Each structure stands twice: as structure tokens, then as C-alpha cells.
């Protein structure tokens, strides 16, 4: 593994059977970093053409300046989310609540009236103004005609997600009753249709601190309205995962229902799945897998993981497509049939579906599910059984009548896992946690020490790890796996952890910006990060090579050269314990 060095300029050097094993069609799940859309017309010309502040090409900016805008919300996040959101430099409460300005509810001009429209096609001024009116109507819809306590709470949310059909019929809303939002959904549909009828495709609209992001998967529309200051790429990625979660439950063949009846009501098919979508949306604020395109493994000794993989391989040879042993959202072992690979997104959506469905915990289950990255058109069948409170075994097959065979396989697997003490080791690892920055070896003489040996810590002065290292995430590009250090002081509260997570999101988006090309390193002080409940700066460092990506947070007074050396040390440490934190042998997904 090469070391990171700096030059003089500061740059770095160094229920159907699947139709085969085909992966996702090209028109589904666009790359997370994609910003541009397919252009079908000529760029905007004249005064409307110009560079965007966010790097989008052909941005069309026009201030409507007509009348008073209807008020829009200052909202908050999911009640169960960890920490606060937004880029404010002030400390916010952990539930993301934000009090609305009284003037907004008195009909005064709203500071978030739409002033910019983002697209890549040519629209005349009259068309742009028409879109502005529609979007301002959407923001105005945040003040509904009913004024009960529920509507007040709904307006205070900072981040909304909506799913609707191309006929404007509401399918899902993160907050509130989607059936009461029929008019709101119709307005969203009108905006999308208006732009599409002009031969264009709408990506997002910025209205003050609000951002409206659109994802069109005909006949399904997905919309996110957010004022959390997350980058467009992150919000688009979240919409793609929500769409994937819907496909996992229904498959893409639900489109046939809309072909027969464009006004088809899909809500009965998703009845009882609100907890699944809420859990996924909650993960957007704490699970790095939602933007890293990778999965994480539970730290285990090499021999323990090999013992688990051996029995799963024996099961896979008996006709199981995938055998997956997980503890919460962490992988213990994964085995698939020859030439079959499980995409990290499918693992994320599958684990979220299982962990958020109470029925899986109460008894062994055999349920049809779709893996959208593997094949979005067909169902597989998942046998799920919880071995303890957090550890569960999932066996995937193409046969709808293999329940009893999979049950026998589970009994065999469970017996071996108990006799070989794998389950007890899994429980111990969950209690011990993963890598800690305080345990980072200070010199090469400590490299031979194992992650699983007790008390791998050295005396530290100050807070965090060596050279002021607070936290890091390491992603293996070849394995599609990542490891993240445990949170510790000074990033101890859920609010601080959430802020750091979103800072990582922004850093990831800037490093993978298609408009500016691939970066190798980035070192910057994030003025939006709050730590220790006082206003401070955090130093963020990202290092990307052909083999790995490293994201790290340092003390605000950290020296750049020392931070670089510490990152080299982190990479060496990860390499020394890779057999304990990564799963080898699982087929990596070919991107």
C-alpha cells in the first residue's frame, strides 16, 4: 500500500424464477454521483444561460418577482432520527425541530420563494415563470387548508419524501396521511409533466434554503423536499434507495398495473410497510452504506468467520442462491452460488426490510422479495430466522416450494454455529464494538497486535486519537466494503454524529463530482460542524486511490502534515487487521 505525500502545491501523490443472473437495466438506479441528465434540446441561450452556483450546466435562473409568495415550512426530521440536521453554525436539538417564523403564516413574502430553476434544456421565459408559479404553489401547499395540531407538526419537518404515480395519485408520504395530500401530489405531478412536455427532465429546484429533488421512474415519481443542506447527489441517492425498497416489496412488474389502468391505486399493495420506509429514511442520517455504495462487516477473528462461511457454503451447494448471516446491519458471512454476487444496495435494502418488520422476529418466515440490483422484474424467496435478538440467517432461493428444505438447512447451520461458538463470538463482538481511534498504533512495533486482543489502547493526551484524529471511514473499492471507527469524545452526542455524517456526505459528493473530474485528496475545515457544544471548526480529509477511499475528521487545530501521516498510519492499521474487519471470498459487484 502506498503512502500519501504532499508536493509543494499541497497535492497528493500515491414468485417467478429469475431470468438468469442479469443485473439491473441501464435505465434504473443511475449512478449516485451522476449530476447531468440526457439532453434532448439545445442549451439555454441569452440572459438565462450562465454558470450555476452548484456546478450544474445550462442553469436557468429567473426571479419571478410577482406578488407575495405563499408561506412554506421550516420543518424537522423523523422523530427517531439521530441528532440534528442542517448546516447552521448554531446547535440544534436532536429531533430536528425548528420553529416557524410567525410572519410566514401571515401571508407575507416568503424568503424561500423560488428564484432558481435547474435544468439542462431550453425553456422560454414564459415557461420558466410558469414552473416558478407551480413550485411556489407547492411550497404554499405546506400551509394546508386544515389547521389542526397534526398539520402544524407536519409543516415543521425539515425533510419530506413523497411517492406518487404519473397521474398524480399519492402513494406514500413520510409524514401525514398521503390521502390528505392529493392536491399537493397533483401539483408535484403538474410540475414534472410540464417540464417533460417541453422535452426536458427536471432534476431539482432550489428555493431559498429549500431544495426540491425529483426522481422520475415512470410510472412512479419520487420527490424530496429538504432544507437540511444535503447535496443534490445525496438526496437523489436517497430517492433511488426508496425506489429500490419499493421494488424489493413489489418488483418492477407493478408497472403493468399502470399500463392497464393509469389511475391505478398502489397504496393497498404497500399497506403495513410504513415502518420499512421510515427505517430506511432514518438510516440516511446514520448509516454510511446509504452513500458509500458498500457494506460493513462485524469484526470477528479470521477463524470464526471462516467457520461461519464453511457451513454457509455447504448450504449454498444444496441449491440456495444466497446464504447471508448478519447481525443488525453488519455482515458476519455471505456465500453465493458460482458467478452470483449480491450488490451492497440489495444487502442494505434486504437488511432494512428484515430488521424493520416485526413479523420476521416472532417466527421463521418465508417471504417473496425482489433484489432490484440483481433482477428488478422477478421475485426470489427469502427464508428468514432470527438466531438471537440481533443475529439472523437469510437463505434466498428461486423456488417457491422450498420452505421445508430451507428449514432443514437452517437447523443444520444453527447447530454448527452453536457448537463452534460462532454465535457467542458474534454477541461478544457486538458488545465490544469496532475500531477506535484511541487504539491506533503509534508506531510500527504495534502493528502485529490483533484487533480482537483485549485492551489494544495506548495512553493518549488530549481528546481523540493521535494527532487529533476524531473519526474515520475506510472503504475498500475492490471488496465493496467499508469500516468505520466507533464514535467517541468529542463526537459523543447524536446531534454531533449526525452533523459529521452529513459533512462526510458533502465531502463524498465533492470528491465524486462528475463535473470537475476525479479528485485524489481534499483537506478542508468544515465551518458547519459543531463539536463539544461550542462553535468550532472540524478538519475533514479525504484520500482516494484505486484501492481505497479514506474519510477522516480531525481536531480543528490539527496540522496538515501530521494529519497526512496519521492517515497513512490508519491505512496501515486497516491493512494489518483486514482479515478481521473484511469478508474475503465474497464476489465483489462489478460496477
What report would you give on this structure?
Belongs to the MON1/SAND family. Residues 319-412 form the FUZ/MON1/HPS1 second Longin domain. The protein has 591 residues and is of the alpha+beta class. Helix content is 30%, strand content 18%. The protein folds into 3 domains: 46-230, no CATH class; 295-431, Dynein light chain 2a, cytoplasmic (Beta-Lactamase); 437-581, Beta-Lactamase (2-Layer Sandwich), CATH 3.30.450. It is built from 15 helices and 20 strands. The strands form 4 sheets. Strands 3-4-7-8-9-5-6 form a 7-stranded antiparallel beta sheet, sandwiched between helices. A 6-stranded mixed beta sheet has the order 10-17-16-20-19-18, sandwiched between helices. Strands 12-11-15-14-13 form a 5-stranded antiparallel beta sheet, with helices on both faces. The two termini are 23 Å apart.
| Rounded mean pLDDT score | 74
Number of strands: 20
Choose one word for the global shape: globular
First-to-last CA distance = 23 Å
Alpha plus pi helix count: 15
The largest sheet has its strands arranged as: 3-4-7-8-9-5-6
Radius of gyration: 25 Å
The largest sheet, given as strand count, sense and whether it forms a barrel, is: 7 strands, antiparallel
Q: Pairing-aware structural class of the strands and helices?
A: alpha+beta
Helix content: 25-40%
Total domain modules = 3
Low-confidence stretches: 5-115, 119-125, 143-149, 444-449, 452-462, 527-535
Please indicate the percent range of residues in DSSP E strands (runs of 2 or more). Answer: 15-25%
Amino acid at each position: 500500500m502506498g503512502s500519501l505525500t504532499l508536493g509543494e502545491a499541497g497535492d497528493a501523490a500515491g414468485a417467478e424464477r429469475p431470468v438468469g443472473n442479469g443485473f439491473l437495466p441501464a435505465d434504473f438506479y443511475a449512478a449516485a454521483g451522476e449530476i447531468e441528465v440526457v439532453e434532448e434540446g439545445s442549451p439555454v441561450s441569452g440572459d438565462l444561460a450562465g454558470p450555476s452556483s452548484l456546478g450544474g450546466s445550462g442553469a436557468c435562473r429567473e426571479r419571478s418577482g410577482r406578488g407575495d409568495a405563499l408561506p412554506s415550512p421550516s420543518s424537522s426530521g423523523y422523530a427517531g432520527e439521530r441528532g440534528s440536521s442542517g448546516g447552521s453554525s448554531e446547535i440544534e436539538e436532536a429531533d430536528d425541530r425548528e420553529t416557524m417564523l410567525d410572519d410566514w403564516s401571515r401571508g407575507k413574502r416568503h424568503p424561500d420563494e423560488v428564484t432558481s430553476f435547474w435544468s439542462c434544456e431550453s425553456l422560454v421565459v414564459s415557461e420558466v415563470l410558469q414552473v416558478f408559479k407551480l413550485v411556489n404553489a407547492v411550497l404554499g401547499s405546506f400551509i394546508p387548508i386544515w389547521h389542526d395540531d397534526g398539520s402544524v407538526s407536519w409543516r415543521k419537518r425539515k425533510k419530506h419524501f413523497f411517492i406518487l404515480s404519473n397521474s398524480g395519485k399519492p402513494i406514500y408520504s413520510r409524514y401525514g396521511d398521503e390521502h390528505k395530500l392529493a392536491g399537493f401530489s397533483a401539483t408535484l405531478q403538474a410540475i414534472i409533466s410540464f417540464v417533460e412536455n417541453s422535452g426536458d427532465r427536471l432534476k431539482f429546484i432550489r428555493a431559498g434554503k429549500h431544495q426540491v429533488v425529483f426522481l422520475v421512474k415512470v410510472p412512479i415519481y419520487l420527490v424530496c423536499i429538504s432544507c437540511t443542506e444535503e447535496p443534490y447527489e445525496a438526496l437523489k441517492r436517497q430517492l433511488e434507495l426508496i425506489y429500490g425498497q419499493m421494488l424489493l416489496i413489489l418488483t418492477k412488474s407493478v408497472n403493468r398495473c399502470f399500463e392497464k389502468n393509469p389511475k391505478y391505486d398502489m397504496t393497498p399493495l404497500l399497506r403495513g410497510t410504513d415502518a420499512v420506509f421510515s427505517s430506511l429514511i432514518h438510516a440516511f442520517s446514520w448509516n454510511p452504506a446509504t452513500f458509500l455504495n458498500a457494506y460493513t462487516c462485524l469484526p470477528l477473528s479470521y477463524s470464526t468467520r471462516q467457520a461461519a462461511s464453511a457451513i454457509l457454503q455447504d448450504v449454498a451447494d444444496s441449491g440456495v442462491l444466497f446464504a447471508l448471516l448478519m447481525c443488525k446491519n453488519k455482515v458476519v458471512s455471505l456465500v453465493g452460488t458460482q458467478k452470483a454476487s449480491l450488490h451492497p444496495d440489495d444487502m442494505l435494502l434486504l437488511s432494512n426490510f428484515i430488521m424493520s418488520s416485526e413479523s420476521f422476529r416472532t417466527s421463521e418466515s418465508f417471504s417473496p422479495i425482489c433484489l432490484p440490483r440483481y433482477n428488478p422484474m422477478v421475485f426470489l424467496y427469502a427464508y428468514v430466522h432470527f438466531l438471537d435478538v440481533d443475529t439472523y440467517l437469510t437463505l434466498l432461493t428461486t423456488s417457491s416450494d422450498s420452505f421445508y428444505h430451507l428449514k432443514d438447512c437452517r437447523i443444520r447451520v444453527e447447530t454448527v454455529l452453536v457448537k463452534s461458538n460462532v454465535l457467542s463470538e458474534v454477541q461478544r463482538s457486538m458488545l465490544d464494538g469496532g475500531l477506535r481511534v484511541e487504539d491506533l498504533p503509534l508506531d510500527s512495533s504495534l502493528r502485529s497486535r490483533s484487533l480482537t486482543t483485549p485492551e489494544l489502547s495506548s495512553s493518549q493526551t488530549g481528546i481523540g486519537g493521535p494527532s487529533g484524529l476524531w473519526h474515520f471511514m475506510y472503504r475498500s473499492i475492490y471488496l465493496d466494503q467499508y469500516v468505520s471507527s466507533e464514535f467517541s469524545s468529542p463526537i459523543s452526542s447524536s446531534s454531533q454524529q449526525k452533523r459529521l455524517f452529513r459533512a462526510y456526505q458533502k465531502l463524498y459528493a465533492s470528491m465524486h463530482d462528475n463535473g470537475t473530474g476525479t479528485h485524489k485528496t481534499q483537506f478542508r475545515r468544515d465551518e458547519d460542524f459543531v463539536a463539544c457544544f461550542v462553535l468550532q471548526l472540524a478538519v475533514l480529509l479525504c484520500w482516494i486511490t484505486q484501492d481505497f477511499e479514506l474519510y477522516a475528521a480531525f481536531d480543528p487545530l490539527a496540522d496538515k502534515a501530521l494529519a497526512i501521516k496519521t492517515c497513512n498510519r490508519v491505512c496501515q492499521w486497516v491493512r494489518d487487521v483486514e482479515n478481521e474487519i473484511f469478508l474475503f471470498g465474497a464476489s465483489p459487484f462489478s460496477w
